[in-house]
Amino acid sequence: MRDPHPSIAATAAPRDTEPQHRDHDGRRNGRVRDRDPRHRGLDAERGLALDVPVPAPAHPPEIPEDRLDADAIRTIARLRHVGHQAYFVGGCVRDVLLGFTPKDFDVATSAHPGEVRATFRNCRLIGRRFRLAHVYFRGAKIIEVATFRKNPTDAGEDLGEEGDLLITRDNVFGTAEEDARRRDFTVNGLFYDVFAGEVIDYVGGRADLEAHRIATIGDPEIRMQEDPVRALRAIRFASRLGFTIEPETFAAMRRHAPELGRCAPPRLLEETFKILRCGASQRAFELLRSSGALPVILPALASFFDGAGDEARRRFLAHLAALDRLVKAGGDPSEAVLLGALLLHLPAPEPGAPSERDRLLAELVATARLPRRIAERVRLALASQRAFRGPPRRRRRGLTSQVYFRDALQLLELTVEATGEGREVLDRWRSDDAGAEGGDAPEPGRARAGRAAPAGDDLDLGAVPADRPAQEAGPAAEGAKRRRRHRGGRRRHRRGGGAPAGSSGPPA
């Protein structure tokens, strides 16, 4: 597709004039050139700068530049400089237009993944089902760059038996308009051209933003069959943004809720965590029940809620409301706390008998790739709730030093916040914790497991993502290595191994 702003595209540097060959799937042979030593340093020869200037738009921009991420703007400018289209896309455009501060700024481009990797040395390609490029910056920041794609079903690819619409591969490249139309909801299909200062809307997303409405792009029946997880995403967006779900879209969600069982369990678990961490989990839970999705993704919890009395239901929803207040206040609860907030209400296990809590955790470990360490922390944090409320003389010694203690204490905080009971117990354990740790304990919250940002300059000084042992080795590690070599040498000498190579005379 032609750039919707040809005057802006004309400011970018021209592409390399040598012929570009394509392989069997239509991708340019950027990977071959990247491996070929004759093409190393090609960027330097073409005079690419680290900070490509962004021309001022002809009119006031629809989104002020200070509302956008500077590193993402640099990424877009770099891609435009080498002749590709590149725009802000998706949730960051939606949130900025609504007055929110986005957590991430994603970029969509006409460059294929290999071409993005060739443009940024500190870049890594990830994913199989959906190939993406991650560009790394200081402070462990990652700018995600995706290539324009078209819907595989529209392209006649990836169809299962008897026209099954479930998408299992999503690497069919396309144009900017095709990429917008393959996205899930209209409010997520907006682009922003920072060079022109204009929002590009192919799907009517601006109107739905103004109406505070979540609606699929195209026929909701087809969209839910292509990816049933879109129902969970619709619930999360509607809950977090305070939007309504279009009636036809919600009806399609209800009809196809059983098909969530066909989706990969790790995706369902990941989306469940996102719902619990969105700051509106109480409303999301009600939408999960009314849409029919809850019995599919968390059957034990659905059975409990259906059979619980009014008081038990009120306590459960009050805990979710307390969790929402924690998230909105800037808290970042761990996965163990999120699961614990759900399982806390299931019947406590009887001595020597398996419980619903343990069965659900075992199922998540077996099918959804929940790490066993998290499952064990959930189990121990839940078991600690009874110890918290026991007599002081019977308190378990050393509980404050356990790795799961902070998760258990945060669950107690949620209970106190939800019920108003046990404030003195919470204060006592907080004081015990402060006394045991001396005030140096880390703050409770989720430890993010992300890759470290590359050392060196931000974009193109030859840096690569840092997860190599050599980069972690400091002077202390080098000294330890020398000591090991020295001790090994003495042992060989004592065993009569002879003199070291290159020495004269007997060993000392």
TrEMBL record:
Residues 15-48 have a biased composition (Basic and acidic residues). Residues 1-65, 425-508 are annotated as: Disordered. Keywords: ATP-binding, mRNA processing, Nucleotide-binding, RNA-binding, Transcription, Transferase. One of its GO terms (molecular function) is poly(A) RNA polymerase activity. SUPFAM superfamilies: Nucleotidyltransferase, Poly A polymerase C-terminal region-like. Residues 358-430 form the Polymerase A arginine-rich C-terminal domain. Its EC number is 2.7.7.19. Residues 481-496 have a biased composition (Basic residues). It comes from the Bacteria. It is an enzyme of class 2 (transferase). The keyword Transcription applies. One of its GO terms (biological process) is polyadenylation-dependent RNA catabolic process. Signal peptide: none annotated. Residues 86-214 form the Poly A polymerase head domain. It catalyses: RNA(n) + ATP = RNA(n)-3'-adenine ribonucleotide + diphosphate. Residues 242-303 form the tRNA nucleotidyltransferase/poly(A) polymerase RNA and SrmB- binding domain. Belongs to the tRNA nucleotidyltransferase/poly(A) polymerase family. Adds poly(A) tail to the 3' end of many RNAs, which usually targets these RNAs for decay. Plays a significant role in the global control of gene expression, through influencing the rate of transcript degradation, and in the general RNA quality control. This is Poly(A) polymerase I. The lineage of its organism: Bacteria, Pseudomonadati, Myxococcota, Myxococcia, Myxococcales. The gene is pcnB.
